[in-house]
Please model this.
Amino acid sequence: MQAMATETFIGNMRGPVIRRTDADYDVVRSLYNGMIDKCPMLIARCTDVADVVTALNFAKQNDLQVAIRGGGHNGPGLGSVSEGLMIDMSMMKGVRVNPTARTVRVGPGCTQGDVDHATHVYGLAVPAGIVSTTGIAGLTLGGGTGYLTRKHGLTIDNLLEADVVLADGSIVTANKSENADLYWGLRGGGGNFGIVTSFLFQAHPVNMVYAGPVFWDLENARTVMQKYRDFLPGAPEELGAFVGLKTVLPVDPFPAEHQGKRACAIIACYNGPTEDGQAVIAKLLGELPPPLFNWMAEMPYPTLQSMFDPFLPKGLQWYWRGDFVKELTDEAIDAHIAQAQKLPSALSLMHLYPIDGAVQRIGSSDTAWNARNATWSMVIAGIDPNPQKAGEITRWTKGYWEAVHPYSADGCYVNFMMDDGDDSRLKATYGDNYDRLVALKGKYDPTNFFRVNQNIRPLHS
Model:
């Protein structure tokens, strides 16, 4: 009977359904994080909303657990599920720009790079992350921080509307006036409430930017981090800049004489006239020691967004932890540097992304994303191509997090959560919004059908 049901399901799909016996099964099921290996029973490669509904109904009728894949960039591997059904929307990639309204309609399989490519020709961009291979769906549903955030807010702050397939198979639109409670929950609540099949974003004028990384030797990290901390609050919001502890990668195009050095970096983007950006950066650099190298230059915005892509291909080993940070004290900086001196691999890193400006002009209860009074979102990531180093990078990440966590605020950006234990971290992350999210889950997904995610459980599941 199940074989017959599967054949009927495959016949009702416009997109292909991949089975374990198919030649391309291992390629299609592979995840961005090579540390995680999952083997779905079936992979439904949807081409449209009808396919998504067909796949969802098949899963319900056959009591299959589902995972939802958008752009396929999820760190903890929540876009897949062993034994169940992966609803794979990575082929649903349409992007349509309305240059008059400055809005962008985006399919759920799009990456950030797909969106940047489509909008750049109009001199527009949607605030998003810092790596172009990031899936726009998962990024958005978790929040979305990047170079444009100080001026234009999180990605969710620019989400105008979403089309959603609910757990009962119905299709709804969520915006300020229609299903407004769902619209609230989608903006930071992750994939808990349904399958988003279309996003409508507000875009902003972005074309050429003055941007790039500046690297210092780790011995200068204390001074660099202090000056960055003190400088950014008074800097124009056109400047998006984050600070990181990392390694000068031992590959071209990094300067041969500095390759392999442990370093502190500021990666910045000024969205405005280049001469204005140069003047702003000059104020910061004038108070700092000479860098190892300064690669800031005028460039198209998509060039900046894809700058790190070659170094972060699919299939690397990843283990990460995060925290929200309210205050970067000198003691916290010292704790960071002590851990950075133990970097286990060239790709491993710590980044602090600013949460200020436009983000803080929205109330903490106006969207599900609650951390409007934080100052930074921190991520610590152990990264290496070698599976044999998985244990080492995991131990380093956990040790680093434990050393700096006492200086952090409650909770963590959900897109940086991995192996974070019980519900207490989610409750801390959503704060006063958590009970409202639980009630919303009870309304839109009372059986917790969508649970392969950073899961918010309904009260009676």
User: Anything to note?
Assistant: The longest helix spans residues 390-404. The chain is about 30% helix and 25% strand. The chain has a mean pLDDT of 97. The first strand starts at residue 17 and ends at 19.
